[in-house]
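Components:
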Amino acid sequence: SSKSSKNLPVSSVTSIIDGLKRLYNQKLKPLEVTYRFNDFGSPLLTNSEFDAKPMVLLLGQYSTGKTTFINHLLKTSYPGSHIGPEPTTDRFVVVMSGTDERSIPGNTIAVQADMPFSGLTTFGTSFLSKFECSQMKHPLLEHITFVDSPGVLSGDKQRTERAYDFTGVISWFAAKCDLILLLFDPHKLDVSDEFKRVISSLRGNDDKVRVVLNKADQVDTQQLMRVYGALMWSLGKVLNTPEVMRVYIGSFHGKPINDAVGGPIGKELFEKEQDDLLSDLKDIPKKACDRRINEFVKRARAAKIHAYIISHLKKEMPSMIGKTKAQQKLIANLDREFGKVQREFHLSPGDFPNVEHYRESLSHYNIDKFEKLKPKLIQAVDDMLGYDIPNLLKNFRNPYE
Amino acid sequence: SSKSSKNLPVSSVTSIIDGLKRLYNQKLKPLEVTYRFNDFGSPLLTNSEFDAKPMVLLLGQYSTGKTTFINHLLKTSYPGSHIGPEPTTDRFVVVMSGTDERSIPGNTIAVQADMPFSGLTTFGTSFLSKFECSQMKHPLLEHITFVDSPGVLSGDKQRTERAYDFTGVISWFAAKCDLILLLFDPHKLDVSDEFKRVISSLRGNDDKVRVVLNKADQVDTQQLMRVYGALMWSLGKVLNTPEVMRVYIGSFHGKPINDAVGGPIGKELFEKEQDDLLSDLKDIPKKACDRRINEFVKRARAAKIHAYIISHLKKEMPSMIGKTKAQQKLIANLDREFGKVQREFHLSPGDFPNVEHYRESLSHYNIDKFEKLKPKLIQAVDDMLGYDIPNLLKNFRNPYE
Ligand SMILES: Nc1ncnc2c1ncn2[C@@H]1O[C@H](COP(=O)(O)OP(=O)(O)OP(=O)(O)O)[C@@H](O)[C@H]1O
Ligand SMILES: Nc1ncnc2c1ncn2[C@@H]1O[C@H](COP(=O)(O)OP(=O)(O)OP(=O)(O)O)[C@@H](O)[C@H]1O
Ligand SMILES: [Mg+2]
Ligand SMILES: [Mg+2]
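Structure:
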């Protein structure tokens, strides 16, 4: 039938992710390109973004043990890693699988089409010179990519020493990552204003955040309880979600746990917590697939709404004279036009983009040059949402399992 | 000199508290009575309020171990105490020193001039029938009075079963108390909406609040950490102070700590925490004296401002006709009149009472019947603040030390 000819034949697909990649290119991308969805929000997706492994981002004030944590999981030092009591890691480092052991500078990674980091070019060369990719052959890196980050400094230092938009970069990684580990050190507990801003920049990705109270064997039990309590007290305020964040209490490095301070129960607790964290890390790939499907579907819905809005604005333009004035009026009353689109296509107001941002993006365009509504493009996306994606889910197991 | 004749001779005073009591009756009360300060805010102080021992209020959801806690500190059961797994204590019980062991019903206590509880009559007889005083001879009760309370129930039960203003009563006790212990049980951690309201009603007395995570030996260490973290997370939001509340983690009953579950470190931790809590309780009397001086001085300042406002309003009234209209105008523009008083006497706007409440209280009066400014009454309070109180502090040690 004509219907099935439009559908993605499952036999040609190798996995859910492969299926999404093909669906994107065949069915969603044409709609996005036609109505310039990329200029109004998210850049077009690249194949490398579909192929990217699940990512774990490490964040924390300096010297909380982020680099040590990654090396501990890898049971070896990643190429170019530095560990020390003073601020050591001075850049964002993506630690990923590769055939050779090597470091690639940020400017090079950003232009590589087979890497999902081209979006970072918007943060400028002063950022790219503080960005690096560290590759090595490692069984764990077959499944997970880690992102090590420079420690958050206290206010003034932070501002003077970073020549780029630090929280912006963190937001970018937070959106792409599958898990965000916030590391704390019981000796440096106070959550600096800078770190609060960093945590706030994770908004919208709260469900990915886990907290690690590291080096817990460095203080006695009573101190540990104070420190832990104070941490929860202030995190509860900063994160502002009713669900309590999971905190792993332990000491995540290669050495045996120091039971001179915490005692045997400390050791037992920390070992249990370490096991829990490891099994959470093992779950990431499984969850990453669900997350990607979910985000893909959300993106498709947003792209459809965008197409409805753009084609509606085009339709409202006069055919002959008074175009400039009409465009000004449409932009000025954009919220009213949004309302019309909502009613015409029975859409929920909560799914609509932010009016202010949209108005700003629109102002760079000549509305008259936009495309009319093309029902076939919409139909392709509806088919994808209603048939192809459910079909993929029925025919393939989670590729990461 | 005429000046010294007005001052309180230190030789006639037996303690700081005795001095405050006499100063109140000789110097502050006359000002309060003249300008009806009691009708606009705080009732007149009674001698029994000065004589009252420092009070510790226990609050918590039902069965968290409040009654057990008091009996544990007393090393005996207070008269009329009930302990059990179901909601047991069904009333507010003031546990205080007395020559005989006995319980006195609320209606009787409320009318006793030598007891500081007459203010509770405003909560009506349905409250008074759920109020009791338990007296016994006990060395600890020589220094501290305990207030046991009925456990907070979950929403609906709370509303249907209490025929009086529960949070109002708790606010009343919170203001009079020197320490407020909030008890939690790791098995019943979830802070119900009702309990949130109770905690909110402690506002303004946040510095008196301490948290007890009781029965901590009933769960294993990993569970305890979860429970404790969740508690701090939600308390941080409810209490909304940047300072972390002190939490005592332990098991506060007469029996030995259950180290089958928590293990030896649990036992050690809980014993340290118990010691810390006991020494905090020992500090209460010392701190109570500072608190009372502080509150007394605050009250004196508020009474002076009240006198300035009242006498100013009186002065603004016409001497012959148009009194009703003038009164209406003054009340309508009360904020402007407050401004005039501020400027005339160089007072800080932050020290002024709430305009709305004041307007409401004023509406019951005939402003014309108020007293003019009596400088001698003001002078007496100024002398008290500037000379008598500092002199008391110089000549007496803290009576509770
Ligand atoms: N679990 C641990 N227990 C005790 N010491 C630790 C632990 N983890 C790391 N350290 C020590 O803490 C210091 C900082 O470690 P590391 O360099 O890994 O931190 P970092 O968070 O990567 O710091 P930066 O932000 O400066 O890169 C080092 O001296 C390291 O040996
Ligand atoms: N530290 C403790 N460890 C274990 N069990 C305890 C502890 N303290 C109290 N209990 C038990 O918990 C139950 C409730 O105790 P209790 O009656 O003292 O609580 P309460 O807070 O006064 O309750 P209510 O609000 O109903 O008056 C009783 O069965 C008591 O034996
Ligand atoms: Mg580092
Ligand atoms: Mg009780």
